[in-house]
Amino acid sequence: MLTSIREGLGKIFALVILLLIAISFIFWGVDFGLTSGTIAARVNGEDVSLYEFDQALRFREQQAVLGAQGNFDVNTRNQLRQEVINALVADKAILQRSQDRGFVVSDDDVATAIANRQEFRIGDEFSFDIYQSRLINEGITPDYYESLQRNALQLGMLQQSITGTSFILPYEFRLALGLLTERRRFSYAQFDVASYINEDTIPDESVEIYYNANSQNYVTEPSITLEVLEITSDAMTDDFMPTESSIEEYYQANIERFVSDEQRRASHILFEPGNFISAEQVLERLNNGEAFNDLALEFSVDQLSAQNGGDLGFISRGLYPDSFDQALYSLESVGDYTQIVETQFGLHIIRLDELELGQSQPIEEVRDILIAELELEAQGSAFYEKSIQLADLIYQNNTDLDFISGSLGIDITRYEGVTPADSEINSTILSNAFNAGLIDSGSTSPLIEISENHIAVIRVSDYVEPQERSLDEVTDLIRGQLARSDAERIAFADAEAFLERLQSALENGEDIPNIASQFNATWNEPRWVSRSGELNETPIELANASYTLQKPDLDSYIANITQLQSGDPVVMILSAVEMGSTEALDEFTRQSYGLQLTDLNASIEYDVYVRQAVNDADINISQAVITPIF
Questions:
Q1: Whole-model pTM above 0.70?
Q2: Fewest CB within 10 A of the end CB: N or C in the chain?
Q3: Are 337 and 348 in contact (CB under 8 A)?
Q4: 607: closest CA among 21, 19, 16, 20?
Q5: In the chain, what is the straight-line distance between the N-terminal and C-terminal CA atoms, in Å?
């Protein structure tokens, strides 16, 4: 147990079982020999406890119940069990790899990580009361939660060791940029499903048959009675007005904030990343007295600024990367220049051309700002004190919201007939309200952080389970669904017939738009699209679909059927592909793409590492975890 955490860390608890790696793992062998009531799985001889599994499953089920809005069935629950155990087993395998590689997380590291978690903080302060309250309400022991944090930090260290050394080769970079800037030309015929819909063709008998087979899908939403007690910072200090002395004192304590930023005009000579030889040669020529402007024009790869002697204009702090800022603001006199400075954009030699010092604003000009900030400060202090009181009251008595309300002098707001899709209720409160544990217990919730200066506690009662709706209630809905389904089937049949007719029409030079109209389709003339956002009024899903088609041969085409989000089938005809050119991109864009591609490559490398660790592990899962006896 971490002493430093016991002595004073804390905020709202959100159970996150490590990183729950988002990779679809194969299902490992179920071991009928794992009969212990405390073991969920075994990975290379190490146990995944049933306690870990139950906690992770409970959290995932709560989220799934909310999302399912009453349609959370046995199959969904069994699927969740599979996903949770797969994730826990994968985490265990990766943790073992990290331990084998010597990664160690200290108690201080764990204590600091917990102290910095927003779910245990009120404003800028960690609250041990909230930390303790959250764990108790969630049924989590401090030792277990701290072990989760230690594991998460250890996994982070392993991931950083793998992704931090990732790189891409020059030819990979050129190929990727060529693909990213590639353009595609296609035309398409769109079949409007809505024009095919005819509800008169759906007899009552068909509606009744469909209802009888699928009545479980037509249910009312669950509902609750919801009581909410809220605390907001802006309600803490009515009619606040600071004294003149406090305004003056605050101004003097923060006077550096009321000085306009110093600005520096700078020029630079930019070299390609890693080209230290050229940079050092140019630096030597500068030291020998050659003109900075002339060397910038001759050598800088930033062609735009090079035309003006490398001039970048006035630069405030934070506008450029840290290493660039630090080097520029370390120069003392106009005309001074730096040594070689490295950023993600390349190598720079930076010269200070002009200096504008900041000017102080008098107190009269910033008086309104000072009063507003003092009011916010007072609100924050009052909000923090009231939040601590609320956390203490919940810890003392988490079953009586009326007692908490009376103790704080804050009224309870009551809502009846609240459903998971209720737009009148704050979404954060709503997601917590349909927590299965809260509904079953009837107790007050843990502290809910809605925003940095807005918290709440709730109580749920009068839960009404989803009920099957009668046939009369859903007849029109089902008739519309069946008519829509028939319309989609007919539209796709027309699309397939048009596609079959298309080949001979193109070979014979026939009028394609006219043929499309014969098949009840709207014809759209050829247009170019690109991944960079060139759409030419084309639906984004079609532009994306064009990049899944094989490149056609010269003077040929590739045709395929796809579907819009609206459900409309579309026959696409891809007629040309134009490869991108890296030379067409400016240096900043090239560098940005380079960083993105490096990050993507790092992510792929880590995913491969995770898969390999899982595949190499000796994994056995308890049969009781996958197919429990209820």
A1: no
A2: C
A3: no
A4: 21
A5: 35
Dihedral over alpha carbons 359, 365, 366, 369 (to 10 degrees): -140
Sheet architecture: strand order including 183-190: 522-530, 183-190, 569-578, 558-563
Give which of 124, 37, 40, 19 is closest to 82, Cα–Cα: 40
At residue 24, the pLDDT reads 31
Burial 392-411 (b: 16+ CB within 10 A, else e): bbbeeebeebeebbeeeebe
Measured distance CA(216)–CA(219) in Å, rounded: 7
Residue with tokens 């903080």: 121
Position 381, amino acid: S
Quote the pLDDT of residue 569: 97
Which SS3 state, helix, strand or coil, does residue 287 take?
A: helix
Let me know: does 267 contact 293? Beta carbons within 8 Å: yes
> SS in 3 state form for 291-324?
CHHHHHHHHCCCHHHHCCCCEEEEECCCCCCHHH
CB of 324 within 8 A of CB of 338? Answer: no
The confidence score (pLDDT) of residue 3 equals: 41
- The token pair at 56 is 């992770």
Strands (E), 233-384: 263-271, 311-315, 341-343, 346-356
Buried b (16+ CB within 10 A) or exposed e, 444-458: bbbbbbbeebbbbbb
Listed residue (328, 456, 333, 452) closest to 390, CA to CA = 456
- CA–CA gap between residue 488 and residue 492 (Å, rounded): 6
Which among 530, 435, 460 has a CA at the least distance from the CA of 12? Answer: 435
The number of C-alpha atoms within 13 Å of 522 and in the hemisphere containing its C-beta is 9
Residue 529 phi, psi (nearest 5): -130, 160
Residue 231, phi then psi, degrees to nearest 5: -130, 125
Give the pLDDT confidence score for residue 37 in this predicted structure.
60
pLDDT at 357: 80
- The two three-digit tokens of residue 235, written as one number: 């309600």
Give the residues of the chain that fall short of pLDDT 70. 1-37, 62-74, 123, 136-139, 237-239, 582-584, 627-630
What are the CA-CA distances from residue 301 to residues 145, 174, 313, 319, 576 (Å)? 52, 18, 17, 20, 34
For 161, the 3-state DSSP assignment is helix
| Distance of alpha carbon 617 from alpha carbon 619, whole angstroms | 6
- The half-sphere exposure of 49 on its side-chain side, counting CA atoms within 13 A, is 6
CA 66/CA 438 separation, integer angstroms: 13
Q: Rounded CA gap, 420 and 449, in Å? A: 19
Q: Can you tell me which residue has the tokens 């200090």?
A: 237
